[in-house]
Amino acid sequence: MKCTSILNGVFGLTLFAISSAGFAASNQVKQGKQIYEQNCIYCHQADAIGKPGFAPSLTNKELLSIASDKFFMSTIRDGRTGTGMPPFAHLGKKGIQDVVAYLRTYETTANRSKTIDAQPASYGDARQGQFWFNQICVTCHGVEGTGYANGVVGTAIGNKDFLRKVSDGFIRETVKHGRSNTRMLGFMGPTGLANLRKEEIEDIIAYMRTLDKGNNRGR
Ligand code: HEC
Ligand code: HEC
Predict the structure, then answer these.
(1) C-beta of 39 in contact with ligand 1 (< 6 A)
(2) Which atom of ligand 1 is least distant from the CA of 162?
(3) Which of 125, 138, 141, 156 is most buried, by CB atoms within 10 Å?
(4) How far is the CA of 127 from the centre of ligand 1 (A)?
(5) Average per-residue pLDDT for the chain
């Protein structure tokens, strides 16, 4: 008898600990959703599906699977100078964490950001990359990747606030596989928007790095 009641006690305590952690998490998501609706929905739209040429999707499954919390949090905190993405430092670390927790509820596959960000830096040739970039990427991302400001559908991939936070692995993965349900299709294989060779993708990344003097690789 004594033994069962001790067991019950321990068991009850564990259950309580689990449910209170669950409660804290769902409360965080609730708060994050509210912050999203007050601050982000105008541009990123309901369910953060984005709007071509205006704001990217934040609930796209490829983005959610390769973006680290660090990438999300620093992008939201600092914004992207010279684009429509304003800084939200005033939400505080907790507010930003809450909104990221809300976005994460749309995640459908395991997060791979650790392996993606640990990929080696591009070994490409920036001069070759500039040629490919101008041939293929400028149509949607603008000259030197300046983005929507040029009336194009793609984001500012030459923007320094983007380049300083993103790893070569993130860019490589996005160029290879694209983002489903957006205009950003992958560039590898016969179903790609163009079938680029691995080397050509490396060259493009090397060129993109010159747009921010090649200093920082999002590490
Ligand atoms: C006034 C419009 C506007 C508002 C408000 C806004 N954003 Fe953005 N956001 C943008 C634009 C435009 C971009 C793309 C900038 C570019 O061209 O690189 C962007 C990019 C982003 C990105 C990077 C996505 C990627 O694909 O790399 C994240 C993350 C993001 N916004 C989160 C948020 C969150 C969270 C909020 C609310 C706290 C918010 N944004 C509010 C316009 C906005
Ligand atoms: C047909 C149009 C189109 C072409 C061509 C295109 N992109 Fe994109 N790209 C997009 C769009 C649109 C997005 C943002 C997706 C969204 O709106 O949610 C994007 C997003 C990206 C991102 C993620 C940026 C971010 O803010 O997180 C990278 C990196 C990228 N593209 C690289 C490239 C490169 C490199 C090329 C050339 C090889 C290229 N793209 C060609 C339309 C295009």
Answers:
(1) yes
(2) 18
(3) 156
(4) 30
(5) 90
> How confident is the model over 108-163, as pLDDT tens digits?
999 999 999 999 999 999 999 999 999 999 999 999 999 999 999 999 999 999 99
Measuring from atom 5 of ligand 1, which residue has the nearest CA? 40
Q: What is the pTM of this model?
A: 0.91
Please give the average per-residue pLDDT across 198-211, as a whole number. Answer: 97
- With bands split at pLDDT 50, 70 and 90, how would you rate the model's confidence at 17? low
Alpha-carbon gap, residue 123 to 199, rounded angstroms? 8
For the domain made up of 115-210, the CATH class stated in words is mainly alpha
So what CATH class is 22-104? Answer: mainly alpha
Residue nearest to atom 40 of ligand 2 (CA): 137
Give CA separation, 40 vs 8, 37, 84, in Å.
Answer: 46, 6, 12
Which ligand is nearest the CA of 156, by number? Answer: 1
List the chain domain ranges. 22-104, 115-210
